[in-house]
Amino acid sequence: MLSYFVPRGIHRVEETVKQSRFIATVAHTPARDDAKIFISQIRDEFSDATHNCRAFVAGPPGSTDQIGMSDDGEPHGTAGRPLLNMLLHSGVGEVSVVVTRYFGGIRLGTGGLVRAYSGMVRKALSTLNIKEKIISVCVSVTVNYSNISAFRHMAKLYEAKIRKETYATDASFILELPEEKAEAFRVSMLNLNNGETTIKKI
């Protein structure tokens, strides 16, 4: 996977189901710790709610390496698992959701709860503003001074960003570029400098 979609920011939707107020809040959370911080913030914001059920996928879409969920007092399997399943099949990565519920006096039953929580995530994801995340790699490149101008031009062509420059006997650079372009860039650089360029993935 060379790129995938992630939330552009925090997004919120609200709906009333049989007098219970449901609020779904979605956010971009690249790592497990980011997800925990976001969840804590929403729980603090809605500290008077009956439930703050949540789930997160801290990784690419569908990845189960770093996931989490909680029913937060709802019957087991009626909130956290449905939320997580919706996230895992959404095609969006690095995402967390908290669905807040203010109980309105009418019990929904286990099936009703699953439908309500799943529906809130579906509604939030359908209007979510997303952006593409490009998977990048870092490489170190050493060139002689006569090729610096050509090197900079080549780096621009391959959308490489120079993160560090060092000048000694030769010029050395640390670059970040899209993973899908890394091999073509390596070949082009070797051709540019007659095979004398040193390129290492870091």
From TrEMBL:
It comes from the Bacteria. PROSITE patterns: UPF0029. Residues 141-192 form the UPF0029 domain. It holds the Pfam family DUF1949. One of its GO terms (biological process) is regulation of translational initiation. Residues 18-125 form the Impact N-terminal domain. SUPFAM superfamilies: EF-G C-terminal domain-like, Ribosomal protein S5 domain 2-like. One of its GO terms (cellular component) is cytoplasm. InterPro entries: EFG_III/V, Impact, Impact_N, Impact_N_sf, Impact_YigZ-like, Ribosomal_Su5_D2-typ_SF, UPF0029_Impact_C, UPF0029_Impact_CS. PANTHER family: IMPACT FAMILY MEMBER YIGZ, IMPACT-RELATED. Belongs to the IMPACT family. This is Impact family protein. It comes from Desulfonema magnum. The lineage of its organism: Bacteria, Pseudomonadati, Thermodesulfobacteriota, Desulfobacteria, Desulfobacterales.
